[in-house]
Specification:
By secondary structure, this protein is of the alpha+beta class. It folds into 2 domains: 2-110, Alpha Horseshoe (Serine Threonine Protein Phosphatase 5, Tetratricopeptide repeat), CATH 1.25.40; 112-245 and 348-481. Helix content is 31%, strand content 27%. The strands form 2 sheets. The protein has a 15-stranded mixed β-sheet that branches. Strands 9-10 form a two-stranded antiparallel ribbon. A hairpin with a 6-residue loop joins strand 9 and strand 10. The longest helix is centred in the N-terminal third of the chain and has 21 residues, at 90-110.
C-alpha cells in the first residue's frame, strides 16, 4: 500500500516528468498547457532535460513545440544541447540545436530596442578599453594578444574601434575595424568599416521585420554541423560566481597593514580580491589525463556507471532506475543515473579575480557602460564574459581595472582609460590617416571613406572564438606532453 501511495504521490507532484519518463507524448501534449513546463524534479532536471537524457525524441518534439526553455542547465551544469550530444542521436541534436539557435537569434534582436533606448538616454562620452590576455604557461602566453577598444558614444549612436578580430588556425587574426551603430526604437543601422581593405559593410534593417524573418526554419542546421557536434570535443568553461565576495587587499608589513590603494589612469582606486572563485571541469576521458599535474588542480575521479544489467535496463537507463527511485528525493542513487554511461574527471581550480574600484570616476557603470558591453556581447564572447562578470555585486564606484580568469590557464585584464579624451598613441602616419577616421573630427555616426559598400545579413549564429582558443590551449598542452591520447569528449562546464 505504501508503494502505491508513493507512486501516486510523485505522479501528482511531477505529472509532466512522469509522462516524459513513459514517453507518453500524446498525454504530454494535452497536459502541458495546464502545468509548469520548467518544473525541476528531485534530480535537478526539467521535463525537457529528462526527455533528452532518456532519448525520448517524441517527447522532446512536443516540449520544444510548446516553448520549453532550451538554454537551461540541469543540476550538474549540463545544457540541453550537451545532453543531446551525449545521446549520439543526430536527430536529437538537430532538434535541440535548431531551437537553441532560433532562441538566441530572436532574443538578440528583441533586446536591441531597449538597449538603444538606454544608450540614447545616458550621457555622451569617449573611452578606451585595453584588453590584455596573460598566462603563466609559456606555450599559451606565446599566443596571448592584447587590444585597445576605443568607444565613442553620442546619443543613440555608438562607434567601437578594435584590432583583434578572431582566432584561426592557431593564430590570432588582427586587422583594423570600426563598428558603428545608429538606430532608434524601430530601425537600426550597423556599419563595419574595414580600414585595411577600405571597404564598408552596411546593414540597415527594420527591427520588427527582422524579428519576423528569424523563423525556426531559417535556423535549420545542416548535416555537417550536426556531425561536427557529435564528433568534436565539447569545450566549455564554468565560472562559479554564487559565493564570490569582495575583500580589500592589504599593503605593508605585518602589524602595520592598511587597505591597498593604487592610482589607475589618474583615478585613485581601492584594490580588492574576489574570493571563493572556482572553475570546475568535467571531462569524459580515455585512459590518461595529461592535465592532471600540469594544471595543479584538485581532481575527483568518477568511474562510469556500474556494469549492473537488469531486466528493465535500457541504453539510456543502464542501471534500471525505477521511477519510484528517481522521483524520491530521499532515495540515494549513489553513482547510478539515467543517460548513457559516462566516465568523468571533475577538476576544480581556485582563481583570484582582482578589482580596482574608483569612486572618483566620471562614468556610471550601470547607466553608461553596461548597455554598451551588453550590445557588444551579442557578437563577442569576450565581451559576453565581461558582461557576466560586471553584473556581480560590486562595491561602490567604477571598476577602472578588472582582472578575471577566462580559462584554467588564461586571464584577461581590462583597463578603462582616456575617459572623454579623444587621443590616440598611434603615430600620425599619412597613409594610416587616409584609411583611419580621426577620433577628434568625426562623430560616432559618421563612418569613414571607403572604396566600396555592400550589405550582408547578420542574424546567422556565429562560431565562438572562445572554443577555438580552448582548442589552442588544449593543443599546446598536448604538444608539451609529447603524446596524443584519444579523447572522446572533453566537457568543461560553462
Amino acid at each position: 500500500v505504501s508503494s502505491d501511495n508513493d507512486s501516486e504521490d510523485f505522479r501528482l507532484k511531477f505529472p509532466l516528468h512522469c509522462l516524459v519518463w513513459e514517453n507518453d507524448y500524446r498525454s504530454l501534449e494535452k497536459e502541458l498547457p495546464t502545468h509548469n513546463k520548467e518544473e525541476v524534479d528531485p534530480r535537478g532536471r526539467t521535463p525537457l532535460h529528462l526527455a533528452v537524457s532518456l532519448g525520448h525524441l517524441e517527447s522532446v518534439r512536443v516540449l520544444l513545440r510548446h516553448g520549453a526553455e532550451v538554454t537551461k542547465e540541469n543540476a550538474k551544469n549540463w545544457t540541453v544541447l550537451q545532453e543531446a550530444v551525449s545521446t549520439g542521436d543526430p536527430e536529437m541534436v538537430q532538434l535541440v540545436l535548431q531551437r537553441r539557435d532560433y532562441l538566441k537569434a530572436s532574443t538578440a534582436l528583441g533586446g536591441v530596442p531597449e538597449l538603444l533606448c538606454k544608450i540614447r538616454e545616458s550621457p555622451d562620452f569617449y573611452m578606451e578599453m585595453k584588453w590584455e590576455f596573460t598566462s603563466w604557461i609559456p606555450l599559451v602566453s606565446r599566443v596571448c594578444p592584447s587590444d585597445v577598444c576605443r568607444i565613442w558614444k553620442s546619443g543613440a549612436s555608438l562607434r567601437v574601434d578594435a584590432t583583434l578580430l578572431g582566432f584561426e588556425n592557431m593564430t590570432w587574426i588582427r586587422g583594423r575595424r570600426s563598428y558603428i551603430f545608429k538606430g532608434d526604437d524601430s530601425c537600426a543601422e550597423l556599419m563595419e568599416v574595414n580600414h585595411d581593405e577600405e571597404v564598408v559593410d552596411t546593414e540597415s534593417f527594420d527591427i520588427s521585420r527582422e524579428i519576423e524573418e528569424v523563423t525556426l526554419d531559417s535556423m535549420q542546421p545542416n548535416e555537417q554541423e550536426v556531425a561536427k557536434r557529435l564528433t568534436t570535443p565539447i569545450i566549455n568553461t564554468f565560472l562559479d560566481t554564487k559565493d564570490i565576495c569582495f575583500e580589500r587587499c592589504k599593503s605593508g608589513i605585518w602589524g602595520w597593514r592598511t587597505d591597498r590603494t593604487e592610482v589607475v589612469n589618474g583615478f585613485e582606486a581601492k584594490v580588492g580580491a574576489l574570493s571563493d572563485q572556482t572553475d570546475t571541469a568535467a571531462l569524459e576521458l580515455s585512459e590518461r589525463n595529461i592535465l592532471e599535474s600540469f594544471l595543479g588542480t584538485v581532481e575527483q575521479q568518477i568511474s562510469a556507471q556500474g556494469d549492473l544489467t537488469l531486466e528493465y535496463a535500457t541504453a539510456t537507463n543502464p542501471t534500471a532506475i525505477t521511477p519510484e527511485e528517481y522521483f524520491n528525493p530521499d532515495f540515494d542513487l549513489k553513482d547510478r543515473d539515467i543517460g548513457r554511461p559516462i566516465e568523468l574527471t571533475i577538476r576544480t581550480q581556485r582563481f583570484k579575480g582582482t578589482l580596482w574600484m574608483s569612486e572618483e570616476h566620471p562614468l556610471s557603470l550601470v547607466e553608461q557602460v553596461t548597455p554598451i558591453i551588453d550590445l557588444m556581447a551579442r557578437t563577442s564572447t569576450h565581451f559576453a564574459r565581461l558582461r557576466d562578470f560586471i553584473t556581480l555585486r560590486f562595491p561602490p564606484g567604477f571598476p577602472v581595472k578588472i582582472e578575471i580568469p577566462l580559462f584554467h590557464v588564461l586571464n584577461a585584464r581590462i583597463t578603462f582609460g582616456n575617459v572623454n579624451q579623444c587621443s590616440t598613441e598611434e603615430p600620425a602616419d599619412a597613409s594610416k590617416l587616409a584609411a583611419t577616421p580621426s577620433p577628434t573630427d568625426q562623430s560616432p555616426g559618421e563612418g569613414s571613406e571607403a572604396s566600396g559598400t555592400h550589405s550582408a545579413p547578420r542574424h546567422q549564429v556565429s562560431n565562438h572564438d572562445e572554443e577555438l582558443l580552448q582548442f589552442a590551449i588544449h593543443q599546446s598542452l598536448l604538444e608539451s606532453s609529447g603524446y596524443s591520447p584519444q579523447v572522446r569528449y572533453v566537457c568543461v562546464r560553462m
